[in-house]
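hey so i finally got around to running the thing on that chain from the lab meeting. sorry it took forever, my laptop kept dying and i had to restart like 3 times. anyway pasting the input first so we r on the same page abt which one it is
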Amino acid sequence: MIRITVKSPLYLCIALICVLLFQGCARKDTSSKPVNSEKPVGAVVVNAGEHVPAQAEKLPPPTMKEVEEAVHRVLGDNVTVSSRIKPAFIVGDFNGDQVEDLAVAVEPVSAKMSELNNEFANWIVQDADDFFLPKPGVHAVVMPAPHVPHVEPGEVLLEIIHGFGPKGWRNPQARQVYLVKHAAANFLGTGRSFKEKYIREMKLIIETDVIKENRGHKSGFIFWTGSNYAWHSNNG
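ok and heres what got predicted. didnt touch it at all, straight out
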């Protein structure tokens, strides 16, 4: 007679009771720790593909002292704020990054022409009249010959300082500067680019502020193309 056949059922019952007791304890521990389904504080839920623009800080109106300090910060003593255009400056988001920029009429210092036209300078010289746009329906486009603009003595330029960070153009790190020929004129204010039919036809994807001007008895505006500043007359 083999004894293990008698004791085996008893062992099996004891093992089954232990398993049931262990599972009951596990369920009790799990139910005592509810899952936290709250969203983290400050979390923002955004649908896929939805664009949430950054909120630009509302800055106080600029003073002439602040404008002069900004001009000197980026261009030193190479230019002076022009007295031929009043007001001499205007602010807005001219390149569409939702940071305030500064546009100010300046005149070159005659003794600094070589510095202003230095190809390795920290600013970019552009001509607002050089912007090229093919006519609608034209399939074969002949690009105009490349032209490198230079600052000339006695001319009035539009210096545009792109802002950086919450302080915009007042930020000491704001040093991206454009010197634009044929762009300094009597300022008429600013407007939104997508309200201009000409810009809508260009299908620019960035909405910016345009600088409305009266240049040579013609009204028009200066706008950012994505790579340079250009002039467009309201008369065509």
